[in-house]
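Cross-posting from the modeling subforum.

Setting up a comparison between two proteins and wanted a second pair of eyes on the formatting. Protein 1 (sequence, then C-alpha cells):
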Amino acid sequence: MKIAVIGANGKSGTLVVREATERGHEITAIMRSEHPTPAQHTLIKDVFALTRNDLSGFDAVVDAFGIQTPENFHQHKGHLVHLADALSGTPTRLLVIGGAGSLYTDDTKTKRLVDSPTMPEEFKPLSIAKTQAYDALRIRGDVVWTYLSPALVFNPEGERTGEYQLAGDVLTMNADGQSEISYADFAVAVLDLIESGEHQCERVSVVSR
C-alpha cells in the first residue's frame, strides 16, 4: 500500500514509518525539514502548505502532527481542517494520531477526560486543543477518517509487544487496571487499521493488554 506519514520525524511518526516499512509498504515521509528516515520517499513541506495534489494517490495518510508550544496549540485544529479539506471527496483514508482528553470517563458519556480531575492541569491546554480538533473532524462526512486516541499514559520508551486492545469513546483500562500504551504498540495498531480497512469514520482508542 502507498502510505504518507505527516510528521514522520516525530516520536509517533518515526515509529509508524518504521512499522510500515518493515511490513513492506511504500512510504512517503512528509516533514518540514530533512531528517533521516527509512521511508522510500520524502516530501519536505509544511503541513499547512500541503495541497490536494500532494496527497493524491495514497491509500492512507497518517497524521502524526504534533506541536508543544502553547501559543501554537490552535494549529491542532487548523491543520486537521486543512488536511480534511484537501482529502475531501477522495477515497484516501486519513488516520489521525490524536489525544486521550476527548475520551469519555464512563459509559454515560456525560463527561470527557479533559474535564475531569484525572487530567493533570498542566496537560489540559494541549488536551483541549486536541479535543477541539477531534470535534471538527468527527462531523465531517466527506472524508474517510479514523481518529486514534492513545491511552492516558502514552509511553514513548515502552517496548513493542505487538499486542493491544481497541476500544471506543470511553477511557478503557487494561487487565492490570491501567490505561497505558507504548508508542511502538500504538504504531502497530495504526498499521493494522490501515491494512484491515476497519473503523472508517470512527474514533477508536488503543490500550495495552
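Protein 2 (same layout):
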Amino acid sequence: MKMTSPLTVLLLCVSAVYSDTHSLRYYYTGVSTPEPGLPEFSIVGYVDDQQTMLFSSDTGRVIPVAQWMKENEGPKGWEHETWFSKNIETLFKLEVNLWKKRFNHTEGFHFLQVSLSCEIQDDGSTMGGVQIRYDGREYLYLDIERGSFIPTMADARIVTQRWSSPDVRLGEMAKIYLETECVTKLKRFAEHGREVLERRVRPQVKVSGQEKGDAMMLHCQVYGFHPRPVDVKWMNREDEVHSYETTNVLPNPDGTYQIRVSTEVTPKDGDSYSCYVDHSSLEEPLLVQWEPKHRKFAAVIISVGVLIIVVLASAVSLYTRISGKKERSRKSAMTSNSFPDDDKPVTA
C-alpha cells in the first residue's frame, strides 16, 4: 500500500487517479474551541468524489448524503457507522487535549485532522494511507508496510512513541483496518453507486491565445466531463510544454467537471501547439490545435478566395450552357425557316 495525502485545511477531498479506480476516504476533524457551524468533532466520508456520509458531535449520528447510499445501505449499516464514529470521537477529543498540552497551547483555536483512505486500482490491487495534521501542518503519516506512524516533524516524535507503545499499537490497528474493513466497505459502497460513479461524459475543449508582449499565453479550457480524473497538457508537436498555470478540477452544477491549463510560449517558425486531453470517456485522446490569428486570417482569405473562384467558375459554366442552348435554338430556327412546306426537298 501507499500513503495518500489530503489537500488543505478543515474539509478535504481527493479523488481517484484513474477512472476505474475507486477510493473510500474519511476526513476526521477535532477542534479545541467549537463554534456555530464548526462542531467539536466531525467526520466526512467520500467514495471517489461523491460525499457519502456526515457525522458530527452536534448530531451524534451518521447521516447518509449520497442518494444511492440512502437507498442501498440498510439501517444496520448506518447503526454500525454511528457506533464506530462515536468511538473515534471519544479518542479524538482525548488526542486534541494531549496535543494541546504537548505544544503548550492553553488558549486559542487549534485543530487536529486525520485523513484516512483506501483504494482499489483498476488491476484489482489495493493501496491506502493515513496522514495526521495539527493546525494545518503535517506531523505524522502511516508507513503501511511496517504498520507504524512516521513523524515528519521533530515535535511529533513523542506522539509517535506513544502510539507505537505495546499497549497502544495504533499503527498496526490502522494497517489492519485499511487492508480489511476499509476495502470491504469500499467494494460494497462502489457497487451501490456504480451507475453514478462510472458515468462517462465526453469533455468539450476550447483553446485560445492571449498576447503578452513578445510572448503568447495559451489557454486550454476543458469542461463538461465525468468522471473527474483527466489528463490535460500543452504539446508542441511531439514535445510536452511546461504548464504555466493549472486550475484544480472544479465541479459544475450538473455534476460534471472543468479544468483550465495555460502555458506561456514564444512561437517560432515550425512550432505547432496543441492541447492534449485524455479522459476515460474517449476511445483516443483529443488533440486540439491552436491557430494564431494571422494563420486564421490567412485561412479565411484563402477560403473566401476559393469560394469566389468556385462561384465564378459556376457562373461561367452556367453562362456557357445557357449561351450554347440559345445558339442551338437560333440555328434550329434558321434551318426550319430555310425550307417552306411547299419547297421541302423530296426524298426517295
